[in-house]
Amino acid sequence: MNQHVTVDPKVCNGKPVLRNTRIPVTVIIDQIVEVGSIQGVLHKYPELTFEQVTATLHYCHSVIEHTEFEAKAA
Predict the structure, then answer these.
(1) Are 5 and 21 in contact (CB under 8 A)?
(2) Cβ atoms of residues 22 and 11 within 8 Å
(3) Is 11 part of any domain?
(4) Partner of 16 for a Cys bridge, out of 25, 51, 60, 62, CB 3.0 to 4.6 A?
(5) Contact 11, 5 (CB under 8 A)
(6) Is 59:26 a contact under the CB 8 Å cutoff?
(7) Does this model's pTM top 0.85?
(8) 3-state class of 49 per DSSP?
C-alpha cells in the first residue's frame, strides 16, 4: 500500500480504497478513463486531492509490477 491507499476487510469488502473514504481504487481508475484526466476526476470528486488520485495510479503500477503471470501451455 501507500499512505493514500488502504485495504480493510471491513471497508468495501476488502477492496483497495482511498484512505478515510469508501472510494475504491477501481472507481478512480474508471473515472480517469471516463473523463480523461486527473483534473476531470478532481472536478467530479472535489473532496479528493491530486495526491490521492496520483497515489491510486502509483498503487496500480505497484500491483502490476509485482504480479507474475504464468504462460499456460496450449
Answers:
(1) no
(2) yes
(3) yes
(4) 25
(5) no
(6) no
(7) no
(8) coil
